[in-house]
Amino acid sequence: HAKKMGRGNYQFFTPEMNAAAGKRLALERDLRRALELKEFELHYQPKVDMATGDVHAMEALVRWRSPERGLVPPNEFIPIAEETGMIIPLGAWVLHEACRQNRAWQLSGLPRMRVAVNLSAYQFRQPNLPEFVAALLVETGMDASCLELEVTESVVMHNPADAALTLERLHAQGIHISVDDFGTGYSSLSYLKQFQLDTLKIDRSFVRDISSNADDAAIVKSVIALAHSLRLKVIAEGVETNEQLDFLRMLGCDQYQGYLSSRPLPAADFERTLRLSIDLRQAA
Ligand code: C2E
Ligand code: MG
Ligand code: MG
Ligand code: MG
């Protein structure tokens, strides 16, 4: 221990650092096992059309159902999965499960919907990603137009030339591409014209105070104008109140996601809610 060290020695690890490193190692070990035991599940959040209230798409969000830790949110394990490379098998599982579930819903008679899957940086940089996704679509029987991939600005800006090519190869298959958390990166806007994109997702941080903060409102208004002039759609994240919704609608936003419409739900709950809303509509 540090106290026993002679003068001039550095204390490399404090007890707190040791505890943190131990926790992190345990998490990594458990995560590896979770991958083998398939302890992951996808929750789904609808993407709602502003004008009609219709749901034509949803976002798949991964959770880890750990017997010891409970339901673990992605922010607590995705970064570690990225650092360790586990994101590749995990991301492959997410893609496969999202396509499989969406195809199963289609076959069961639900209206055709698009499912959006988040891609991490390391996953996006795999040279064979476009072929991998193409094979997955064949295997699950899902149409490419029913798949959407969400990437953040930093993911595509890491190596713009390679990213442009990857996006091109995905887009050419008919896959829909969204820029997630738009506005929070530090990238220039010039990439918007170089990349094959379909939708900008306005980050939740701009939506939170949109009806009271003139700066946020101005930013969102400009992003919507920019997107539309580039023939991109705009979806707002994190809409929790009717006030936010009304404001975004006034600004011409195309779609929204948020607790106001629904929290991300386990597949069975998502399906039940969807069927209920379809039945209600038909009864009306
Ligand atoms: P994201 O892709 O930006 O997803 C939106 C996050 O906001 C989700 O958190 C969602 O549950 C949450 N959210 C949705 N509506 C509201 C709202 O009205 N209010 C608030 N406060 N939050 C809302 P979640 O599920 O914890 O996911 C966090 C992040 O983890 C995601 O951010 C995404 O970057 C990442 N992630 C999730 N699933 C995956 C995955 O399968 N692969 C990868 N690579 N990353 C994933
Ligand atoms: Mg997302
Ligand atoms: Mg987002
Ligand atoms: Mg986010």
TrEMBL record:
Q: State which stretch of the full-length protein is shown.
A: 426 to 709 of 709
Q: EAL domain: from which residue to which, for each copy?
A: 24-278
Protein name per Swiss-Prot or TrEMBL: Diguanylate cyclase/phosphodiesterase
Keywords, A to Z, come to:
Membrane, Transmembrane, Transmembrane helix
